[in-house]
Design brief:
elongated, mainly alpha
Length: about 160
């Protein structure tokens, strides 16, 4: 059974913005991405601030984690616009890869670590699972964006509107 793409494409007379109900799942996902990205910034920046206050060396791994959190937070706000989601799925994949690397980096360091009474280790173990949640959220929005891009982008050419795409 072949997939009929024309059945799912928009007609030229329909609204490009869609209904509010169709945007709601995207906005919920982007809101969760923003909240969890801010959480990543907070969890990892604590150690950077403590090292700075003590005049000690701050590890680049924690700087990378904060940078990925900032990229995730800003991207989730910018990509909450539905038209950008359709075209921004490539950036969703990039942020997904960044969070995958972050999860792998800190997961290797802290998942098997025993946190017996050490609050810092407990916090970092929790941060690893927040990284995993972020990774999965960005994967879901990347797949959603790909689906929107390849199946729902319309059925007419860009310049003249006469040719079927």
């Amino acid at each position: 059974m072949a997939f009929n793409r024309a059945k799912f494409s928009r007609s030229s007379s329909s609204s490009s913005s869609g209904s509010l109900l169709s945007k709601l799942p995207l906005w919920v996902l982007r809101f969760l991405q923003f909240i969890f990205a801010i959480t990543v910034i907070g969890l990892y920046a604590q150690d950077l601030r403590a090292a700075h206050k003590a005049g000690k060396y701050s590890d680049n791994k924690w700087g990378y984690a904060v940078a990925v959190g900032v990229i995730g937070a800003v991207s989730s706000l910018l990509l909450a616009w539905p038209r950008l989601t359709m075209w921004g799925w490539g950036w969703d994949l990039v942020v997904f890869i960044l969070f995958t690397a972050l999860f792998g980096l800190f997961g290797k360091m802290f998942i098997h670590e025993r946190a017996e009474g050490l609050n810092g280790v407990k916090r970092m173990k929790n941060a690893v699972w927040i990284d995993l949640i972020n990774m999965l959220l960005w994967f879901v929005t990347a797949i959603y964006g790909m689906i929107m891009f390849f199946f729902f982008r319309g059925s007419r050419s860009l310049h003249t509107g006469r040719a079927a795409v």
